[in-house]
Amino acid sequence: MPARGANTASDASSSASSTFDRLLYGNQQTQSQPQRPGFVIEEASPEDEAIDPGYTTWARPFTMSARTASASLIPDLYTSLPLIRDLLNTQTSQVQDKTIHECLPFLSGAEANIQQLNAYGVPHLARKRHVQFLHKNLRKLPAPYVAADASRPWMFYWVLAGLHALGEDISEYKERLISTIRPIQNVTGGFGGGNGQMSHLAPTYAIILSLAMVGGKEAFDLIDRKAMWKWLGALKQPDGGFQMAVGGEEDVRGAYIAVVILTLLDLPLELPQESPAWSREGATFLTGLPEWVGRCQTFEGGISTKPDAEAHGAYAFCALACLCIIGDPHVIIPKYLDVPLLISWLSARQYAPEGGFAGRTNKLVDGCYSHWVGGCWPLIEACVNGPSSPGAGPDTQSSVRSLYSREGLIRYILCCCQDQSKRGGLRDKPSHSSDSYHTCYVLAGLSSAQHKWHFNASAVEMESSGTLSSPYQWTSEIFVEDSQIYDEEDRVRTLHPVFVISEGAAEEMRAYFSSKGGF
Amino acid sequence: MAPKASKPPKAQPEAPEPPREHPSISSLHQDLYQSSRPFLTLAQTKGISPLTPTEKSAYAKSRFLETGVWRTWPAPQQKEFWAAVEKQNIPIPLPKPRDLGKDSRGQELGTYTIEEYAQYRKRERQLQGLRRESVRFRDRREKIQDGEVSEGAVEDERNRRKLIGLLQGNRMGLYEGNPEWDDVVPIPQDDGEGALAQIAYTDEYAEAMGYLRAVMAAKEHSPRVLTLTEHIISLNPAHYTVWLYRASTLFSLQSSLTEELEWVNEVALENQKNYQIWHHRQLLIDHLIPTISPDAVKALEESERGFMTQMFEQDGKNYHVWSYRQYLCWKLDMFNETELRSIEDLLRRDVRNNSAWSHRFFVVFSDPKYATQGSKATDGYFEAPQNQSPWNYLRGVLKKGGRDLASLEWFAGEFVKIGEGEEEDVRSSHALDFLADVWIEKGENAKAVKALGLLGDKYDRVRKNYWDWKRAGLKEGGVGGAASKMEALKVGF
């Protein structure tokens, strides 16, 4: 049965074998030729192929140890090599094989360090250790952390969002968060990476979201909204996008973060007159923005950091979340993006046996894409299903429940991403150390896989409604499956599908500023 | 136990101990103190009444000496007093030794050996002299107009401060020790009370950042700012503020941008994952291009391509380098054969390098000159048919050219045998996916349903939900099905 075997070069040479260009640009007569010149650069017998010595060993079906034999409910999808494999050896295939090899023991329950598996062969969420790990990241950090000196506010956000997902009360950090953030704000608007650093959208995003999560008048009043509005004006570009800092790079992160700030702080959409994008015709912060985001979709279907670059998972989330702030998902996403192509690309980011997501075509699985790619699904599913009407059951016949494998993702997260040592925390893959970034986004991905989000067309009518009110119409419920592979105690809390913070926090912040009226 | 007072004194005060070895300066001081007051100590330990008359007399004289009361006496009486003191050989009592304090490292000076302490005192005297000189230098410079202090005097002062640092035992900060920075008062970092995730900076980094904050606050753009920013970048290359401020300083000084590019190359090679370097480079190129000849632009294209090739040797998928490359293609009009050949070299090395595929698509289709032509013949792209990159590329090319997927049905079919009466042989799930779309396009739904079923149940099971969703749309066929929804979504695009 050849289907099970790996593809070899000699197979290829005897089959489809035109040059790429003839394929695409003419010489159509080749279509009728059953035999074509060799596809390989040199005719090579399979014996001549340079095959990684390790490869042949891995090619054998993975055998489970006696210990794991009881965990009979692990589908072979997650314990064996992919059905179709090419033998051509390149750097990409080498690191991919190495990664599979690294993950298989964790996925099949053969890893000795994992103490307890449930009936589905899945370890528990080491909640207590992850909580401790996150707390530790807000304590005094040693000198090598100087590399994070310009991105320190991210740690506040990652830790707080992660702790919330794990069910912790984060209010103990409220006062210190406020006093830490105060000297980071610039009088010219926005926040930098630390005291005396230039304002930049990335730390500003992390800070606004952190303040939203701790909530309250004192936290909100800390933000100089008028200065923020002016600074955002300086970042807005005539082509529709946003720079990350004055004179900094323009990319799709900027597009997402700018509208997050505009909506959460309920800032006016008209541009300050000093803005490089200001025009007599009355250009606003949103002028040309969704079009610019649309230009970031590549021929592959995914989204790149800016027009012309390579499709990348992190930017897919930024683009979708940006659009879902500007409008309702089912209306705005199809208006600016080729949805079927995007879905196909997003879907192709999930690999087996790993189960988790990779960020780009032919790149490796990484826990953080559990959010960057995984977090796209609620937005895309809302786009495909349209709004849920209030009162109607959540899952009507024609609506799609999931477009990806929640089981695969949850298996990857619980089996491969948890640091099972005393250290705790979550990680990229087993060979990597845990850090607060991965802990936050792996948990966000887990949360998204364990819940179902609904976009409600008119369920919530915003008081001051009008602009940018779409992201406040989401509601969540527990996602129920016939056979749930994780125990109920391992379910984490929800994080908002657009803002990625505790549910309700965005609404509270927006309402506070809306009620103020003006600056 | 018998009271100690009945014992005879250990040593006769009249015959003091010979000098002995002292482990520390404070023990010497203590010893000198003790040996300067034999009769006072004797009276203190024994009481006065058991003393002999001679001892009593010596004790009284010691007290007069200690209190200094003899100074109030008339001169003849003083003379008589001193004669008696000399005769009885009564030492003059020393004041109680004071605490010597601590050195710069927090060590008690009292624990120094006698020799160490002597050296310490010598050093302190030297330091005082140097500090006085340093203050005089600053005063002098303040009095005269800018730039009047001679190079030599500045150099002397620099060396003086090095010496001060050396003698102090803790070196002066790089900027504190440099007279050229004397006009800047560093601004310390305000971290707020009980700051979260506070970083324990090294002294070197903390000092440099203090000066940067001050310089930025004064909006100073001078050559010394380039030195300062280079220093901070070497300590923390991810510091966007420093990069942006450096760029604006370079431009306002009209510094050599080619020199800057060379320096940036080194930093980039050492910091593969760095984000900021590539934006900085882009700013440099933006400023450089209008100032150089077309020949120089051509040479720049060559050297930039060479440098990126070097970067790709370490990581052929470095996202920042690729994004920069797309920018550069627009900037230098690099839509040419050399660029395509360079991409092909990378694909030959790793045909799965999707970044290279993406760039190829960009080069071929972004410039009208090449949009219809494509690249030269290259073999081997489908040698590994389960490689998704060329399949995505192929779909992209067909779409750009407005051609049906069906025009390449024969090609995808080479990797898939699932027909009636055929032995099933699928060597690429991407070919099967391609065929499914071909058949949807042609309205051959039954074949498409079979293909999607095989994908979901056998060849790409982790994506089963996706394949099933696509298939469900086909089966439903009519309005409301997933496929027709997809078509509706397409119309919007």
TrEMBL record, chain A:
It comes from the Eukaryota. It catalyses: L-cysteinyl-[protein] + (2E,6E)-farnesyl diphosphate = S-(2E,6E)-farnesyl-L-cysteinyl-[protein] + diphosphate. It holds the Pfam family Prenyltrans. Residues 9-18 have a biased composition (Low complexity). It is an enzyme of class 2 (transferase). Residues 26-35 have a biased composition (Polar residues). One of its GO terms (cellular component) is protein farnesyltransferase complex. One of its GO terms (molecular function) is zinc ion binding. Residues 1-38 are annotated as: Disordered. InterPro entries: FTB (IPR026872), PGGT1B-like (IPR045089), Prenyltrans (IPR001330), Terpenoid_cyclase/PrenylTrfase (IPR008930). Residues 125-501 form the Prenyltransferase alpha-alpha toroid domain. GO terms for biological process: prenylation. Its EC number is 2.5.1.58. Keywords: Metal-binding, Prenyltransferase, Repeat, Transferase, Zinc. Binds 1 zinc ion per subunit. Its cofactor is Zn(2+). Belongs to the protein prenyltransferase subunit beta family. Heterodimer of an alpha and a beta subunit. Catalyzes the transfer of a farnesyl moiety from farnesyl diphosphate to a cysteine at the fourth position from the C-terminus of several proteins. The beta subunit is responsible for peptide-binding. PANTHER family: GERANYLGERANYL TRANSFERASE TYPE BETA SUBUNIT, PROTEIN FARNESYLTRANSFERASE SUBUNIT BETA. This is Protein farnesyltransferase subunit beta. It comes from Lachnellula cervina. The lineage of its organism: Eukaryota, Fungi, Dikarya, Ascomycota, Pezizomycotina.
UniProtKB/TrEMBL annotation, chain B:
The keyword Iron-sulfur does not apply. The keyword Transferase applies. Keywords: Magnesium, Prenyltransferase, Repeat, Transferase. Gene3D superfamilies: Protein prenylyltransferase (1.25.40.120). Residues 1-14 have a biased composition (Low complexity). Residues 1-30 are annotated as: Disordered. Its EC number is 2.5.1.58, 2.5.1.59. One of its GO terms (cellular component) is protein farnesyltransferase complex. GO terms for molecular function: CAAX-protein geranylgeranyltransferase activity; protein farnesyltransferase activity. Its cofactor is Mg(2+). PROSITE patterns: PFTA. It comes from the Eukaryota. It holds the Pfam family PPTA. Belongs to the protein prenyltransferase subunit alpha family. This is Protein farnesyltransferase/geranylgeranyltransferase type-1 subunit alpha. It comes from Lachnellula cervina.
